[in-house]
């Protein structure tokens, strides 16, 4: 009986690891789609998956002298992706953005924007500029 439980535990851990790997790769692909849209619009990628003490910012871009912090969300639909951005995550991204600005020449006086890039199951990406700048 112990062998059956151990096998089940190993199968569960392996399945979970595979789901995590797929989610990670899917997230990278979604971020690449967003970067492609941003660069086509003339923005310059400064950082991908920048991590501060407060949390991670998926993309940090330059729009002229302005800094754009972008969160990338992927889901079956754009509406589901939008709904997955929760207030606590917005607070963490804002706090991490403040940390990032400490390394910018103008510091907290830098003009910034917080965007949401949504990617659906078909790979279609839309950028919602300033989606949570007000937060």
Please specify the SSE layout and strand pairing.
Layout: H1 2-40, E1 44-51, E2 56-63, E3 66-74, H2 78-83, H3 87-101, E4 112-119, E5 125-128
Parallel strand pairs: 3-4
Antiparallel strand pairs: 1-2, 2-3, 4-5
Tell me what the CATH architecture is: 3-Layer(aba) Sandwich
**How many β-strands, per DSSP?**
5
Mean of residue pLDDT values: 91
**Number of spatially distinct domains:** 1
Biggest sheet: strand arrangement: 1-2-3-4-5
Range of helix content: 40-55%
Form type? globular
Structural class: alpha+beta
Distance between the termini: 54 Å
At the fold tier of CATH, the topology name is: Trna Endonuclease, Chain: A, domain 1
Can you walk me through this structure?
By secondary structure, the chain is an alpha+beta fold. It has a single domain (2-128), classed as Trna Endonuclease, Chain: A, domain 1 (3-Layer(aba) Sandwich). Helix content is 44%, strand content 27%. The protein has 3 helices and 5 strands. It has helices at 2-40, 78-83, 87-101, and strands at 44-51, 56-63, 66-74, 112-119, 125-128. It has a 5-stranded mixed β-sheet with strand order 1-2-3-4-5. Strand 2 (56-63) and strand 3 form a beta hairpin. The N and C termini lie far apart (54 Å).
């Amino acid at each position: 009986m112990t062998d059956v439980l151990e096998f089940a535990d190993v199968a569960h851990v392996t399945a979970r690891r595979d789901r995590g790997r797929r989610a990670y790769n899917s997230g990278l692909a979604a971020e690449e789609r967003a970067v492609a849209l941003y660069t086509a619009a003339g923005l310059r990628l400064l950082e991908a998956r920048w991590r501060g003490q407060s949390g991670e910012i998926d993309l940090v871009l330059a729009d002229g002298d302005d800094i754009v912090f972008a969160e990338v969300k992927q889901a079956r639909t754009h509406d589901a992706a939008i709904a997955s951005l929760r207030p606590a995550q917005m607070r963490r991204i804002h706090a991490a953005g403040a940390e990032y600005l400490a390394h910018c020449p103008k510091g907290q006086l830098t003009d910034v924007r917080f965007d949401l890039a949504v990617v659906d199951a078909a790979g279609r990406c839309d950028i919602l500029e300033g989606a949570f700048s007000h937060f």
